[in-house]
Amino acid sequence: MTPSIRPTQATIFTALLLVCSLIMAYAGTMAVGYYVPAACLLLQAVLLWQGRAFKLFEWIMLLNQLSGLVLILILWLGDGLGDLKLDIAAAMLLLNLLCGGPLMSLMSIGILGSLRFNSPLPGWFRARAA
Predict the structure, then answer these.
(1) Which of 17, 76, 77, 120 has the highest CB neighbour number within 10 Å of its CB?
(2) Burial group, residue 96, by CB count within 10 angstroms (0-12, 13-18, 19+)
(3) Residue 3: predicted pLDDT
(4) Average pLDDT estimate for 7-35
(5) What DSSP character marks residue 99?
(6) What integer pLDDT is reported at residue 1 of this predicted model?
(7) Is 101 left (phi over 0), alpha (psi -120 to 50) or beta?
(8) Tens of pLDDT along 71-124?
(9) CA distance linking residue 123 with residue 96, whole number of Å
(10) Alpha helices (runs of H) in 29-83, residue ranges in sequence order
(11) Residue 33: how many CB atoms within 10 A of its CB?
């Protein structure tokens, strides 16, 4: 079996995820809570580089996007919820940080788009799984 050639998109996105992980780790020196998003970003970079665990890779990004969207909508439109508004917003913020934080939100737009509308990244994960 011949080894698969890593697509350029995988290399670029991995490098960007690593840079984002370093930025979050630097933020973690000032606020320890940012070490968790840094670790998640590093995990995503490793999964993408190796082309392994496609479903986990995709679910982390989808949960990040969903929690960020719910957080923004609750803060914007949740006035009728009373004190529950802050509880839901806090839970969504924690979930967002657990799944990579705001930098993952920015990165996952391009990565999810590439997974949906382009063939090199899904092909990379399929080739590595086989």
Answers:
(1) 17
(2) buried
(3) 58
(4) 95
(5) T
(6) 40
(7) left
(8) 999 999 988 888 899 999 999 999 999 999 999 999 999 999 999 988 889 999
(9) 28
(10) 35-50, 54-77
(11) 11
Are the C-beta atoms of residues 9 and 122 closer than 8 Å to each other?
A: no
The chain-wide mean pLDDT, for the chain, equals 93
d(CA 75, CA 55): 30
Q: What is the token pair recorded at 115?
A: 């997974």
| Joined tokens for residue 9 | 């998109």
Q: If you search the block for the tokens 């350029």, which residue do you land on?
A: 8
CA angle 119, 128, 18 (to 5 degrees): 80
Quick one: pLDDT band at residue 128, thresholds 50, 70, 90?
confident
pLDDT of 84: 93
Close Cβ partners of 72 (under 8 Å, ≥ 6 residues apart): none
Question: And the tokens for 14?
Answer: 């991995």
Residue given tokens 């092909």 in the structure block: 123
Q: Residue 7: phi, psi to the nearest 5? A: -65, 155
